[in-house]
Amino acid sequence: MSDNTDLQQKFVTPDGKLFDTKAEAQDYQRRPKIQEALGKIVEGNQDLVDWLTDNRDAVTDSFSAGTIKRVSKSEKNKLEKALKAIVEANDPKFAFVAENHEAVLETFRWPKTTRMNDEEKAQAVKAELTTLADGNEEVADFVIENKDAILESFEAGKVKRAINDKAKEGLARYQAEQKALREAAKTEAEPAAKPAKK
To answer: In the prediction, which pLDDT does 2 show?
Structure first.
């Protein structure tokens, strides 16, 4: 009899590809739509379309150079998978990480970054993109010039959840109530006008 601890849940796309997470399966299914959207910006350069698609997380991250970086859900999932692989490898060289994998996952943070002005940020973004593009400054400049269109293309194929009309109305009512409360508090806080001296 086999041990049930070896069971794993997988997500299968219509073409039969297997993925560990639903997000990975959805990303795989979105790829043609992302490439189609990028193809409209990068006319006739399939290599650049492929490069942008393959590096979309890194390209997106490069635009946040000089800002405080938080660990995203997808990054945490990638770290968790990597740590799981280390544990399963059962290699004595990785024993310390394997023994402390839960603490590593729980406490992982990106290093602190120094605050930058706009010019320094622009230089940092270009440097990151140039490094990512194996030193090709033309690619880095193209990505910077077309930043908004490229980032929008990366969102292609994402299903946007429709917001319920009742929820919209409730939110608008709540915001109006909060605004009224703030106005009332502000009025109460203002000192009464002093009578003019005779």
So the answer is: 47
Indicate whether 63 and 102 sit together in one domain.
Answer: no
Among 66, 72, 55, 69, residue whose Cα is nearest residue 130? 55
Pair (100, 124) in one structural domain: no
pTM for the structure as a whole: 0.58
168 is a domain residue: no
Q: 140-164 pLDDT, tens per residue? A: 999 999 999 999 999 988 877 667 7
Q: Write the secondary structure of the chain as one string of H (helix), E (strand) and C (coil).
A: CCCHHHCCCCEECCCCCEECCHHHHHHHHHHHHHHHHHHHHCCCCHHHHHHHHHCHHHHHHHCCCCCCCCCCHHHHHHHHHHHHHHHHHCCHHHHHHHHCHHHHHHHCCCCCCCCCCHHHHHHHHHHHHHHHCCCCHHHHHHHHHCHHHHHHHHCCCCCCCCCCHHHHHHHHHHHHHHHHHHHHHHHHHCCCCCCCCC
Task: Tell me which of 46 and 192 has the higher pLDDT.
Answer: 46
Both 18 and 101 in one domain: the answer is no
